[in-house]
Amino acid sequence: MSTLESRLPENSAVGKLPYRGKIGMACLIIAESAIFTIFVVAYLFYLGKSVSGPTPGEVLETPIFYTICLLSSSLTIHLARKLLERGRRTGFLALWLVTVVLGALFLYGTAQEWHRLIYEHGLTISTNLFGTTYYSLVGLHAFHVTAGLILLTIVLLFGLAGRLGSEHSARVDVLSLYWHFVDGVWIVVFTVVYVLGR
Amino acid sequence: MSSDAIAIQTAETPGRPWVATLHEWVTTVDHKRLGVLYILYALFFLVIGGIEATIIRIQLMYPHNDFVSPQVFNRMFTMHGTTMIFFVAMPILFGFANYLVPLLIGARDMAFPRLNAFSFWLTAFGGILLYFSFLGGSGLYGAGNAPDVGWWAYAPLASRAFSPGHSSDYWTIAILASGFGSIATSINIIATIISMRCTGMTLGRMPLFAWMNMVMSGMVLLAISPLSAAQIMLLVDRYLGGHFFDTQAGGSATLWMHFFWIFGHPEVYVLIIPCFAFVSEIIPVFSRKPIFGYPVMVGATVCIAFVSMSVWAHHMFTIGMSSYANSFFTITTMAVGVPTGIKIFNWLGTMWGGKIQFKTPMLFCIGFLFQFLIAGLTGIMLASSPFDWQLGGSYFVVAHFHYVIVGGILFALFGAFYYWFPKITGRMLNEGLGKLHFWLFVIGFHLTFDLMHIPGLLGMPRRIYTYEPGRGWETLNFLVTIGAFIQGIATLVFVANLIISYFKGTKAGNDPWDAWTLEWSVSSPPPAYNFASIPRVSSRRPLWDLKHPEDPDSHYE
User: Fold this and answer.
1) How confident is the model at residue B143, as a pLDDT?
2) What ipTM, to 2 d.p.?
3) Which among B191, B237, B243 has CB closest to A128?
């Protein structure tokens, strides 16, 4: 029976199938979207159901500046990976650095907001239902931003060490997909928490 | 490089120290070895979960029995359910998917081999964590104490106030860890099937096994993630003082039910669709006919996946929902029966007019067909909300879902073991022992689960640790327990068959069943690189084309 194997016709041309990294990241994004959906549903379901204060209307302030930071980082990462594809490494590094800075600024904004809520308004995760759902949802997003920032920084360090070229652009694309997803989630969270939720 | 040169590097040379072999298995990223690890790990937990089931059944054998205390009984049914779903069914199905998907689509490994190893060890860690609760469930000062909140851990039972100590935390973290493992494996399976197919393996030529595992993986992404989210919320409640499921602070116990069953019902299809995959590969080979209605099978699978995402609240009819919700979930649940019925007709259509060979794998598949049909029919009964108000939470429900899980999933799995064991080990499973296993299991299964419907109809609630005599339940419960013992003996026959055949079985050769899919074109067990040269296929049955060059399938495509 071992002749069967050799009788299978040889593969001469490699078929053009989608890059596995992209498919893997797309699947991860689907799974993550389901996780976020559950947290968003919980947030909406519990709106106005807290038995004690503070309420979102009393304490939340719309973080417009930091939202602009995060959303524009989507644009810079997109331009950066285009430059890498074309082999323009200096331009890539500059835009990549801007992306990291914008992401870090956003995290700083979240930290500042939490500091204000905790120390000025006494709102913690155990204060009331609003606190529980707010910190979980925004915290889950901030966790994803942090994870993304760590990955972006690793790429930045490789770039600074001169170990990044256009041959890595497919992998960098996968990372940028994740970053776009994190930004997209923020649009939903922003709408739910700061627009609809008040 | 010739294939011989590769073979020499990876061949198991006899007389190597066992530590080296062990090290190789622990650090492996080969999809076949990880598949075997998944399967062995799941078999180990199958025995443990089976022992727990036996303890439950011995306790219920007589009225007023005191074989175990009520507390231990609660732990047993919690651990039995959790173990069987998360640490037997999921890993064993992922094991087969891991082993077979790359072989069936002509790939040398999964898309992400290291992620694959990571997923397995995460799942393994989850199982160990769950069982560590027996030792460490009450922290350092108390003795152990396994979770006892039921496998769905309804709020507020799982909150700090009603579940002190750490047993529920072990449950939560174990499921969270294995859930992340499952999500990662699913990502891997989908990426493998989309990006790693060999030349000519178009989506329309892909074996149904690959199709169904891809659909199952998609469902895992959408079903396990909500469970993970809910477990994170439960951890927030238990550790950070959150109020998600704390009714005193305005939280909702019903929300947990929704989140749990948004996972819980699709999960049933996550488990049964890979079993459809086994049956769809085995029945054609032993009927000597190609599968009937291939495109319809694919469509029906996708349809089941789609509809099953919107049926979850049929587990919640008894909590009192609006009449609109009741109607919606009744209709969607009954609607799943349509694509499922299409599948059953297609399998029957495959067998119709075929030269059926009643080998053990086929016997288990035929058993699967009958039993899965009956399980589906009781499912339709329970889908009707007024019927469910009467029988929800009774032994009728327990009988129904065990009919699905044992009569459907386990039978298909046994079939898969008999069918692919020769490929995995290079030796055939013994046919005589296999038939003995089959008939013993059929008798035990029907004795247990046919009869279990009746105490349910007579009003016996699930999860009671004992009952009063004189309600007409005694004889039935006694017989149910006897059936459980027969199933236990049948499982021992199976395990004995696995061990004996592994050492003494007849050599299988590459293609013992005269089958048609790519895994049978390579040696048994396959070499580490799977295919010396990546094959090129031109039909759904590449080996048929090879064996019958005068009348290849590709002429008809």
Assistant:
1) 62
2) 0.93
3) B243
